[in-house]
Amino acid sequence: MIKKLIKTVIIFWLLIMILVLGGMKYYKGVVTHPLKNIKGTEKFEIKQGYTLNNVLNSLSQNKKMKNLFIIKYYISKNNLSAQLKLKPGVFKINDDMDIEKLLASMNKTKEVLPKDVVKITIPEGFKIDQIAAVLEKYEIISKTSFIKSIKHYKLPSYIKKDTKRKYALEGYLFPSTYNIKKGASGESIIKMMLSIFEEKIRSIEETTGVVITSKKMDNIITMASVIEGEAKEEKERKIISSVFYNRLKRNMKLESCATVQYAIGKHKADLKPSDYRVKSAYNTYLYAGLPEGPICNPGEKSIEAAAAPDKTNYLYFVSENNGSHYFSRTYSEHLRAVRKYQDK
């Protein structure tokens, strides 16, 4: 009787061990290979407003998951959703993925746009004429129609009305990536870009602690556009900003080559002496103070630099021909730098 009881107990515990080991093996299998019914690499869509639970539930409903409960438990237990930033679009899945790789793929969605919507990127420092050319290139709107909209757009209160400027909106069409429908009106495109500009100004105010009032706006954006035209490296933007502000305080001309480029209406690798003498309110070699208005559409870092420059004693800088600049406090030091880096 006792032998039979011992035998029963042993069998019972063996069964428990088998179940435990089997369960552990199954758990590990789900964790390392959570997906099923996948042929090679497939694409799965994250819809607008989807949370991680929505995506997991959708995968499960499409019979692509081995065990939804275990997968959710593992993600929660290891706090794997903390770094997840889901965006609408399509991500790739395959049956070799573990849970970590699955989540990583979810973080790399590729946006799916309607056929009549185009994604375009406006680089920092682009001028309105260049923006118009990009819009025409992607068959969104003709350059002529966009420029017409630029000239007739009702300006927000923070943009200075100045008939001497080439375009009143120059400087305020924020460089970024946009999804724009083919055939969109110039007015709707301008409104979209100004909306992003206003968002960025609020962000810059929080970052710098500087309140950019409507009264200050024009000078800051104009200065930012000059910085954008001169700076090649991000780390130098605030230093370049300080140079220009220091020169203004001393009633020195800014003497920015970028303003000459705008004044002559085209980019030149090498400016001629006659270019520096061109009569234009944008030419800071000829006229003191800021140029008549912004000379391009500056990015966020240049606007930050214009709003909150570094504190330096520099009055000059010259290109080192490698993207960097050499900064000088005195004219004699500047001349030595010019001879070193430019007179070759």
Shape: elongated
Low-confidence stretches: none
Q: Assembly type of the shown chains?
A: single chain
- Main sheet record: 2 strands, antiparallel
- Helix/strand-derived category reads mainly alpha
What is the H/E string? HEHHEHEHHEHHHHHHEEH
Helix content: 40-55%
Mean pLDDT: 91
Strand content of the residues, in percent? 5-15%
User: What's the total count of β strands?
Assistant: 6
**Whole-number radius of gyration?**
30 Å
- How are the strands of the biggest sheet laid out side by side? 1-2
Distance between the termini: 106 Å
Q: Indicate how many domains the architecture comprises.
A: 2
Protein name: Endolytic murein transglycosylase
GO molecular function, one term: lytic endotransglycosylase activity
Subcellular location: Cell membrane
Function: Functions as a peptidoglycan terminase that cleaves nascent peptidoglycan strands endolytically to terminate their elongation.
